[in-house]
Amino acid sequence: MLAVEFLGPGKVGLVDVPDPVVEKPTDAVVRIVAAGVCGSDLWQYRGLEPLPAGARMGHEFIGVVASTGPEVRSVQPGDCVVSPFSYSDGECAACRDGLFVSCAEGGVWGDPGTPGGAQAEAIRVPFADATLVRLPVAGITDPDVRRFLPLADVLPTGHHAAHLAEVGAGTGVVVIGDGPVAAGACLAAQRLGAERVLVLGHHPARLAVSRAVGAETVAVRSPEEAVETVHGFFGGLADVSLECVGTQDAVDTALACVRDGGVLSYVGWPTAGVAIPLRSTFDRNISVRGGLAPARRYLPELLADVAAGVLDPSPLIDVELPLEAAGDAYSAMDRRDVLKVCLRP
Questions:
Q1: What gap in Å lies between CA 35 and CA 120, rounded to an integer?
Q2: pLDDT value for 273
Q3: Which residues pair with 134 in a beta bridge?
Q4: Taking the CA of residue 107 as centre, how many other CA atoms within 13 Å lie in the half-sphere pointing to its CB?
Q5: DSSP code of residue 280
Q6: 213 contacts 187 by C-beta, under 8 angstroms
Q7: Which of 56, 45, 16 is nearest to 330 (CA)?
Q8: Closest-CA residue to 188 (of 167, 211, 216)
Q9: pLDDT tens-digit map of 265-291
């Protein structure tokens, strides 16, 4: 089969690799219908996160089950499924607590030691019963791709930010970032009852996606300009600040925009050296929460709302390209020409 591999900073390529097969009784093999290119993939693409040449890329996919091991019960060949960006056994203490990303037997697709990346024609899924979630469709149509693929990562990650911040009725929320996770956080905050949601970023064209899902947006150039904008919008600082980028500038902006006694919730994949100054949060009694989203925990409730039409994350994907155009996809996202690319094998 064909799969996307990392060839070095600024370069990915399509290679022919062995077809995945069921290796253990709890495995499934999924034929991938659509795979996402994530903003966190760009950290590796740019050389900001170490990754060996030859590593397989991608951790977001939806597809159709091709085969299963004899112990798999929840899915069968022909089922349409979504996978979170990590797999887990569903049985360990971390999984029982809902922290599936901390499963000792699990892993994030594409990391060393995992079955491979999701930007490929197929993938072997360990612990299929605990990992895969069946989609309520008989076949994945073109509109289904854009509404279901965000469930693999960006929508549950945005939900994680809003959930940890305890967003609810009347909460004033500022979101830092103009990528798909920020737009996912907007959807999540609105779903949880936020009174007003303001999104701050640097790129007006990318902010338009958050605006399309119902948030108000402003392009800012500095933390100082962000604070001024937030004051004008809320009549003070925000109750909650959701950081969805992972850079020091974004963290500093998020912290500057939240009121004393408020919550800073961070879900942006942190680049090297990013830090939250403890004294600043201490003096202002700001609660700091965040981390890698346990996407599998949130999938059932989010999928139910997407399937019912209550949530529509389809604007979070703005371009679809064939798998063979993976290099063009990465280049376009790196240049910020597009928000999020879906690769179609």
A1: 8
A2: 85
A3: 81
A4: 15
A5: H
A6: yes
A7: 45
A8: 167
A9: 999 999 878 999 999 999 999 999 999
